[in-house]
Amino acid sequence: MNKLVFQIIFILIPVLGFSQASNDECDFATHLGDIFEYCSELGEFSNVGATQSPEPIPFCWFNDASNDVWFSFTPTAPGVFAQLFGAVNGSPGNVNNPSMAIYSGPCSNLIELGCGSVGVGTDIVELTTTDLIIGEVYYIRVDARDNNMGDFHLCLESFIPTPSPQSDCPDAVVLCDKTGFIIENLDSVGNNPNEMTGPCIDNSGANGAENASVWYTWTCDVSGTLEFTLSPNNPNSSEEDLDFIVYELPGGLTDCANRIALRCMLSGETGNQSAALNEPCFGDTGLMAGDTDLTELPGCQPGDNNFLAPLDMVSGVSYGILINNFSQSGFGFSIDFGGTGTFLGPEVDFEIDAIEAFECDKSVTFTDQSNSLTDQITEWNWTFGVGADMTTADTPGPHNITYESFGNKIISLTVTTDKGCTVTKILEQFIEPCCQDTSTLSLTGFGNPILCEGQLGSLQVQGISGSPSYQYAINDNDDFQPNPLFTNLDAGSYELFVIDIKGCEATTIVEIEEPEILDIEIITQDTTIDLGFSVDIESILTPPNANVTITWDPSEGLDCSDCLNPTSFPPGTTTYTVTIQDANGCIARDNITITTEIFRPVYGPTIFTPDADGDNDIFTLGFGPQTRSFNSLRIYDRWGNLVYEGTGLPVNDFSVGWNGRFKGVLVDPAVFAWIAEVEFIDNVILHVTGSVTVAR
Questions:
Q1: Quick one: which of 306, 286, 287 has its CA closest to 298?
Q2: pLDDT tens figures, 454-470
Q3: Residues 617, 319: Cα–Cα separation, whole Å
């Protein structure tokens, strides 16, 4: 690559709100890389905080798409099988009723290739897209019905497509090699739903009929063993039951009438049996080395494991397989082949030559070298990869192709014979850069600063001039991506790169600065006071002139809940937390604990003289600052007669109380009992008792 010196423009822009999804728009799609077999972590992604994109709503979606997020990927085969999982197994926080669409780019001119949406109450979307250009960037758009937001995860797998599945033996798809493949849905039984025959089939009962089936046939080329694994596409179902029967077709690929069952797998659930005992008979199934069973009957018998012994294939003999989804879930399967035997089919091959050099803007020649010893090749389907001036072709060639861009080009050729055999070969060719010294490529760098301590920053780059489209990288990482936004970055210096399709590159250094520290410190130490007394709380704000909102929690007992230095009259032992928040949403906190000693004094005189001399004429009680209210005071004579009752008395008002009279007449000197109800500031209500002597 030519690393040239270019004009560098540095711009500082405000950071997006942290609640907004970083992949909210197509231009900032999260890049998943080259797809072979990919599955994100459970609940790894989210559409929380996303807003509605300007692109038209996909044709199969609901009408209120408003929280969509975007992903990008590059396929490594012409087909990609995508699965979107929402609220699987009732996971809390996961999105309900998700939907998905797949597009070819660029973002400024998207073309919808596929669409999947689920009905209310279902949370898995499957979507198969074929005829893809290997290595091209494609986009996935995810949202959910009824403005649902939450977590989800994605699984993608590249594969070489086979012809559309058929559910009747005479129409079976012919397999010509052991390349694995994926079937998205399995929901048809064809015109004949009763083709299941074999030693595990009871045609007089319910297990003789197909539920959702597909047929494949092949002819053995080199004798040897056949192994395979069938895997349900619904990994979140613990009871996905795939069945199969392998047949010999004595008269050739279309001799369905005389088929002979060689392996018969029907194991599944046994009624009234625990889930643990049924578990070995669900999920993956197939022919496995080391297994000796030729048949597993319906139900789940002791020793069943959902696998049978490998098949010894004989050269020139034709075979077929009927695969049936007994669960009728609608989900399909993937199949991977093993063993030493091979399938008869054409040999696909091609040669790559450079007229001048394997370099962009130079011609590269592709020449078909395929052959078929059994039946004639009738179709050729080429894909030449990203940047080719002719992306596909349907003739044997030779084809002269010029690539406008450098990089790894993945070329595929699929040939089809007159018997329906399809075989694909994929090759990779690196096209060298062709950057010129006259390139005008430059780079704009956008730094989104870290606003709050403990948060992460982001960087954004944009190629200018040069030869778009652009790819971007950070810190000399060769893993370039189409997304110009790099997120979740610590403070520090970063080198940003942009590369155009000719291999020209520009770079700059961008600094993500540490945020100004926002802090609140309560300098008053944790302390202990008597109940009813106060403490002045003093705090220090950093920086001192910061424009912040202040909130104390709880506010009870404080003379202000939005000031820096409140006075606390705690109603009991209390931990106060002060929170400050600035205009950027940055938050800092501190706390203090004020422990209260429980002391509730009540003072009652033991003698009083109601003789109207202005001294000690009223009997009442005295209280400390711990008292909230003096609810009642009752006084009784020695015989238990109530001689006085006062309610709602003022606290520490000694002019209000018993004046020593009963029914308007002064009582005779004697000892009287009293009982008072008092409520304190810590919400405790006590009944206090005592006695007083009336003297003259």
A1: 306
A2: 888 899 888 898 898 89
A3: 118
Considering only CA atoms, which of 36, 29, 38, 111 is closest in space to residue 71?
29
Cα(144)–Cα(61) distance, rounded to whole angstroms?
Answer: 9
Task: Give the confidence band of 388 by pLDDT, cuts at 50, 70, 90.
Answer: very high
Q: What number of other Cβ atoms are within 10 A of residue 331's Cβ?
A: 24
- Give mean pLDDT, residues 93-112: 91
The residues with which 100 forms a beta bridge, in sequence order, are 116, 142
**What b/e sequence results for 493-502 when a residue is b if at least 16 CB atoms lie within 10 Å of its CB, and e otherwise?**
ebebbbbbbb
**Dihedral Cα 366, 370, 375, 376, nearest 10 deg:** 30
Check residues 688 and 329 and name the one with the higher pLDDT: 688
Asked if 377 contacts 417 with a C-beta cutoff of 8 angstroms, the reply is: yes
**Is the predicted pLDDT of residue 5 greater than 90, yes or no?**
no
d(CA 66, CA 48): 11
Q: pLDDT digits over 121-135, tens only?
A: 568 898 999 999 999
Contact (Cβ atoms closer than 8 angstroms) between residue 32 and residue 137: no
Give the least confident one: 196-210, 219-233, 343-357, 466-480: 196-210
Determine the 3-state secondary structure of 26 from DSSP.
Answer: helix
Are 519 and 422 in contact by the 8 Å Cβ rule? The answer is: no
CA nearest to 360, candidates 426, 410, 408? 408
d(CA 227, CA 229): 7
What is the signed CA dihedral for 548, 550, 551, 552, rounded to 10 degrees?
150
Q: What are phi and psi of 88, to 5 degrees?
A: -70, 140
Per-residue pLDDT band for 374 (boundaries 50, 70, 90) equals: confident
- Listed in sequence order, the residues at least 6 apart from 251 whose beta carbon sits closer than 8 Å to its beta carbon are 258, 318
Distance CA 219, CA 164 (A): 19
Residues 647, 604: contact at Cβ < 8 Å?
A: no
User: Helix/strand/coil (H, E, C) string of 203-231?
Assistant: CCCHHHCCCCEEEEEEEECCCEEEEEEEE
Question: DSSP letter at 372?
Answer: -
Instruction: Tell me what the mean pLDDT of segment 110-123 comes to.
Output: 80
Looking at this protein, which amino acid is placed at residue 621?
Answer: L
Residue 4: per-residue pLDDT: 32
Whole-number pLDDT of residue 330: 85
Contact 322, 169 (CB under 8 A): yes
Task: Provide the whole-model pTM.
Answer: 0.71
- What the chain holds in terms of domains, given with CATH numbers, is 26-159 (2.60.120.380), 169-338 (2.60.120.380), 350-431 (2.60.40.10), 519-597 (2.60.40.10), 602-694 (2.60.40.1220)
